[in-house]
Amino acid sequence: MSTLRYHLAVLQEHHKITSLDEDGHLRFYENSGTYTAAQQRVLKHLRNTTTREILIGILEHPGASRQEVADTVGISGPAVTWHMKKLTGDRIIRQERDGRAVRYRISEDAAVDLAAGIREAEDRRVLSHT
């Protein structure tokens, strides 16, 4: 572990990688301008299987309610709320009130990054299974 930390520090010192420290997790990204801060936030959420399924579900069904998301993904309503709090905090999801219900949509700023990130994640998954 100390060798890994050393090499990561050297890569950061030479500006080869950048890091994103959020929620007690330190993530590293190539520092060639490949990923903007917004793209890094999207990629962070796509690493979680449940969050990725939620995002795909909302892309396929914009305006889904909490219960619709829960039914699609197969998780509880409170779990949806927990994930949505993280996603709205990173400005990936926006909430709209529809009477008593809350509807979820992908924010316009994150839509392009999200679609590209999902394709990249699926490509990696396909390549790892071959």
Automatic annotation (TrEMBL):
UniProt superkingdom: Archaea
TM regions (residue ranges): none
Signal peptide stretch: none
Ranges of residues in domain HTH arsR-type: 31-126
Pfam families: HTH_24 (PF13412)
Molecular function terms, GO-annotated: DNA-binding transcription factor activity
Official protein name in the record: Winged helix-turn-helix transcriptional regulator
